[in-house]
């Protein structure tokens, strides 16, 4: 039985993780779990620490873990080292190489597939990541990552196909709902409202609320033209974690739309200070450079 299925004993832990309720994942009592599920639970807890930027702590725990030589914890270690290098703005080539090597030797391991796929995708090696992830046997985590990669590649057709295929056998699984919502945000139209319902349900229930679900709700509200509601959702997220990079990015966007120039500038400066490695900053810098080059072509020149 899939431990993450509705009947599996890790379903709550898995849902906590994908609801971005990382503190609940870390604090989850694993003492009553069957022995076969202890390692999958451990992987999720270590991933939660990495998501909360507790990377050094995660690496320390891996080094002293009796299972440190397993492919699962080797994959977590690679992910942690990648996260540390990324945050420090260091080259990611070594992390990507380590991920490729582990994927070659233990490519049938689902944690290797998902975590090494994550590292490869983050290092700009999307096709290599998809090749690793393509070996999965019904892993919703792998499917969700494949959907994300296709969306980053602007292949909405492939992302939608992947999500719809998962829907056929995963039914009303939380991760499938979230993945379909990601796709819906790109499809537009009535899909915005469907995505809103998913994120709003997660964001406004005390048991499932997190920064990420509130941001998802805010983005859906923004697409629906409900700017005050989007602003309110982002404020709720800000109350939980004012330095979350996705919060700061979306604050820049919303404040710009609202004409709040000073607030948008402050959010961008804060993002650059606390998350200088964040991809949005590089994207904005590139777009600014391209815009300035385009402007030069149309700058009128007058004879003296």
- CATH architecture assignment of the domain at 194-304: Alpha Horseshoe
| SS-based class | mainly alpha
First-to-last CA distance: 81 Å
| % residues in beta strands | under 5%
Overall CATH class of the domain at 194-304? Mainly Alpha
| CATH superfamily heading of the domain at 194-304 | Tetratricopeptide repeat domain
Helix and strand run: HHHHHHHHHHHHHHHHH
Shape: globular
Largest sheet: none
Find the count of extended strands (DSSP E, 2+ residues).
0
Low-pLDDT stretches are none
Q: Please state the average pLDDT score.
A: 94
How many helices? The count is 17
Percent in helix: over 70%
Radius of gyration: 21 Å
How is the topology of this model organized?
Blueprint: H1 11-18, H2 22-27, H3 35-51, H4 55-63, H5 71-87, H6 93-105, H7 110-122, H8 126-133, H9 140-152, H10 156-170, H11 174-187, H12 190-204, H13 211-223, H14 227-240, H15 245-257, H16 261-274, H17 279-297
Helix pairs in contact: 3-4, 3-5, 4-5, 5-6, 5-7, 6-7, 7-8, 7-9, 8-9, 9-10, 9-11, 10-11, 11-12, 12-13, 13-14, 13-15, 14-15, 15-16
Keywords: Cytoplasm, Cytoplasmic vesicle, ER-Golgi transport, Golgi apparatus, Membrane, Protein transport, Transport
Subcellular location: Cytoplasmic vesicle, COPI-coated vesicle membrane; Golgi apparatus membrane
InterPro entries: Coatomer_esu, TPR-like_helical_dom_sf
């Amino acid at each position: 039985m899939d431990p993450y299925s509705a009947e599996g004993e890790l379903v709550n832990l898995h849902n906590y993780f994908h609801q971005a309720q990382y503190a609940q994942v870390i604090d989850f009592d694993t003492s009553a779990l069957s022995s076969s599920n202890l390692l999958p639970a451990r992987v999720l807890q270590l991933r939660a620490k990495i998501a909360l930027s507790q990377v050094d702590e995660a690496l320390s725990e891996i080094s002293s873990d009796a299972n440190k030589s397993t492919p699962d914890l080797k994959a977590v270690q690679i992910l942690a080292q990648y996260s540390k290098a990324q945050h420090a703005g260091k080259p990611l080539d070594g992390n990507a190489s380590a991920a490729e090597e582990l994927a070659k030797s233990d490519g049938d391991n689902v944690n290797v597939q998902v975590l090494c796929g994550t590292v490869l995708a983050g290092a700009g090696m999307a096709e290599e990541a998809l090749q690793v992830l393509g070996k999965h046997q019904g892993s919703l985590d792998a499917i969700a990552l494949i959907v994300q990669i296709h969306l980053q590649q602007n292949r909405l057709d492939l992302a939608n196909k992947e999500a719809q295929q998962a829907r056929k056998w995963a039914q009303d699984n939380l991760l499938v709902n979230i993945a379909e919502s990601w796709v819906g945000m790109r499809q537009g139209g009535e899909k915005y409202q469907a995505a809103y319902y998913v994120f709003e349900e997660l964001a406004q229930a005390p048991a499932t609320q997190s920064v990420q679900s509130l941001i998802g709700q805010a983005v859906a509200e923004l697409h629906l033209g409900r700017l005050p509601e989007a602003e309110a959702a982002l404020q709720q997220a800000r109350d939980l974690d004012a330095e979350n990079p996705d919060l700061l990015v979306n604050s820049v966007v919303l404040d710009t739309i609202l004409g709040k120039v000073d607030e948008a500038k402050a959010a961008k400066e804060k993002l650059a200070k606390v998350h200088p490695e964040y991809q949005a900053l590089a994207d904005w810098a590139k777009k600014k450079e391209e815009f300035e080059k385009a402007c030069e072509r149309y700058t009128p020149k007058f004879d003296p």
